[in-house]
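Deadline looming. Please check this record:
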Amino acid sequence: MPKSSRLVIFPGSFDPLTLGHLDIVTRAAGFFDQVEIAIGINESKKSLLEPEERKQVIEEVTKRLKNVTVATFSGLVAEYAVSRKAHALVRGLRQAGDFDYEARMAHANLSLAEGLETIFIAASPEYSSISSTIVRDIYRWGGDVSAFVPAQVNDVLNRRRTGTR
């Protein structure tokens, strides 16, 4: 598949970034010249990590990927993508249920921003059951999330748990 010189955006809450997210962004970085991880800010949601914490740790985790940047945004992803002159959105698919939801979102985004395509990347099998929701639940119940998140994310979560930021 030829590389595109256009920007693609990988939007999400990334609360926290999982190994599945890292797999998708790493693979997308191999296909496109520019990939922006866009952290959506939703003030009405109770987040595990603050937006700036997420941004900092994602920048650290992805610093080896020279064509990946990290930003935050609020509002509609379609409007944000237009403001960034993005060519497409990238979304990961873990299981069949993800496709149903993501296809509806892709159609909505396309109706809000003509020409804004959504490119789906299937999760690698070893990451198909990982979600930020599961990681948050395990963490909140005192469990070990190290098998589901990059080491840098695990370190941030452990420091948060022990109160040593």
